[in-house]
C-alpha cells in the first residue's frame, strides 16, 4: 500500500501536536505549588521594582495609589506562604505601622512595609514623602528577595500547604475583613479575592485524590470561592460590607471543605503546638482553641482532674494569710469572675490601683495582668496570692492542708498521679487549670456565627459589622477571642495606648504608666493589655482603672478618638485618634452586639 509523502507529514504533524500538547499538559500538571509560588513572588518583586521607578518619577496621587493597590493584590496572592513560612519577615512587609518593641533588650525596630507606605500615600499623596516612600519600597524589595531565598531553600510538604491554606482563611476572618492591614486605604474587601483564589489554587493542586467524594469536595470548594469572590466584587464598600453574612455563608463553609479535603486525601496534621485545634471545622467551634498552647511547659498540661483540684483551691480561704479571702473573693463567678467594683479593697482597707479583670477566657493570653508583667497563669496566681495587699499568703502554707485533708488527697492523686509529694508548682498549675476551664464559647454570638442558631437581631448584626468594620474594634480585640492575642498564630498578646482618662469627666490621662513601669521605653507609657470583651456586659466597670461604668460610655470614648481625641496629650497613642463618626444608632448597635458575647451561664 502506498502512502503519500503528504499523508506522512500530516500524520507526523498530528503526532507532533499530540506530543506537544501532552508535554505541555504534563509540564503544567507537574508544576508544583512551590514553583508557582516562586513565580508569583518574582511577579511581586518585578512589580515592586516598577513601583519604585514610578514613585521616583510621579507626583500624581492617583498613579501612586493605583500602583500601590496593584502591589498589594500581588502580595495577597502569596501572603499565605510568607506569613506561614517567613513570619518574622512578614511582620516587616505587612505589619502594623508601629515600632516593633524588643522589651527585654530595651530596643525597638521601626516599622516597614505596606502599612507604612499606606500612611505616606493615603488619603492624598504628598511629594514631601517621596524620599521616604522610595526607601520603603526598596526595603520591601529586599524583604521579598529574602523570602524568595528562604522559600527556595526549604521543602514545602502537602500537610504544610493545607495547614497554611486553612490559616489563610482564619487570617481573612480575624485580620482581613476587619481592615487590620489596610487601615487607611480600606482595600480589605477587594484583597479577599486574590487571597481566597490562592487558597483554592494551592488546595486543588495539593489534593490529588480523584475519588468521587474528593472530586465533589473540590468542585464545592471552587464553587464556594467563586461565589465568595463575586460577593466581594459586588459588595466592596468597606463600611457596608456584611461580615456576618460573609463568614457564615462563605468563610466557614470554606474552612469545613478544606478540613474535609485534608482528611479525604489522607494529609496528616502538621506536628506543632498551636492554639488552634487542627481538627476543628471552623474558627468558631467550642473546641477550636487549645489552652495547652499557653502553658509554661509539658508538665503543666491541662486536665479535668487538675481542674477539679484547682476549683477547690480557688474557693479555699486557707490560701490567704488571714484565712478570710479566697481567689473567689475578688473573682466572683456570678459576675463572670470579676467583683463589680471600680477597684477592689486591699486587705488593710485601702483601695487597690487597678480594676479586677474577668478570668473567663484568661487562658488564651501570653501575658497576664493589666501591665502584662507575667507570661502565664501559674505565675499570675502565685503573684496575687503572695501580694501583701491582696492575699498575703502562699502556696507553701496550704501544702499541709492538701497533704492531710482526705478530699484534697484524693483530688491531688487524680490530678498528679505520678507525683508522690505535694509541691507549690502543682497547686499553681491546678488553679491555673481551673481558670483555663472558664471558656464556654456558647454565647448568642457563637451560636449564630457557627450556624447553630438564627437568633440574632438586625441591630446585633449591625453591631457586629460595625465592630469588625467601621468602628475598628476588631483591629485590637481580635475575632473570635475578642482579646489582644494576635491571630492566627496566637503567640503574642498585645498592649495598646488608648489615653484612658483619670476620671470620667476629668481633663487628664490616668497617671498609671502601665507596662512602662517594667520596661522604661517611651512607647510603653500608659500601655495596657487589650482585654477580652467576652462576657463584657457582666464585667463593669471598665478600663484598667474602672473609670467607665457602662458600655455606652466606653463606646463614646472610642467614638471620640480616645484620649488624644478628647484633647489629652498622648503622643504615643496607638489607638487611631480620629473620630469614628458613629451615629447614635450605630453606638447603640455596638453595645447590643457586645452583649451577645455573654456566655449562657452568665445570662
TrEMBL record:
<dbReference type="Pfam" id="PF03150">
    <property type="entry name" value="CCP_MauG"/>
</dbReference>
<dbReference type="InterPro" id="IPR009056">
    <property type="entry name" value="Cyt_c-like_dom"/>
</dbReference>
<feature type="domain" description="Cytochrome c">
    <location>
        <begin position="305"/>
        <end position="439"/>
    </location>
</feature>
<keyword id="KW-0575">Peroxidase</keyword>
<keyword id="KW-0560">Oxidoreductase</keyword>
<keyword id="KW-0408">Iron</keyword>
<dbReference type="InterPro" id="IPR004852">
    <property type="entry name" value="Di-haem_cyt_c_peroxidsae"/>
</dbReference>
<dbReference type="GO" id="GO:0020037">
    <property type="term" value="F:heme binding"/>
</dbReference>
<dbReference type="GO" id="GO:0004130">
    <property type="term" value="F:cytochrome-c peroxidase activity"/>
</dbReference>
<feature type="domain" description="Cytochrome c">
    <location>
        <begin position="458"/>
        <end position="598"/>
    </location>
</feature>
<dbReference type="InterPro" id="IPR051395">
    <property type="entry name" value="Cytochrome_c_Peroxidase/MauG"/>
</dbReference>
<keyword id="KW-0479">Metal-binding</keyword>
<keyword id="KW-0349">Heme</keyword>
<protein>
    <submittedName>
        <fullName>Cytochrome-c peroxidase</fullName>
    </submittedName>
</protein>
<dbReference type="GO" id="GO:0009055">
    <property type="term" value="F:electron transfer activity"/>
</dbReference>
<keyword id="KW-0732">Signal</keyword>
<dbReference type="InterPro" id="IPR038352">
    <property type="entry name" value="Imelysin_sf"/>
</dbReference>
<dbReference type="GO" id="GO:0030313">
    <property type="term" value="C:cell envelope"/>
</dbReference>
<dbReference type="GO" id="GO:0046872">
    <property type="term" value="F:metal ion binding"/>
</dbReference>
<dbReference type="InterPro" id="IPR036909">
    <property type="entry name" value="Cyt_c-like_dom_sf"/>
</dbReference>
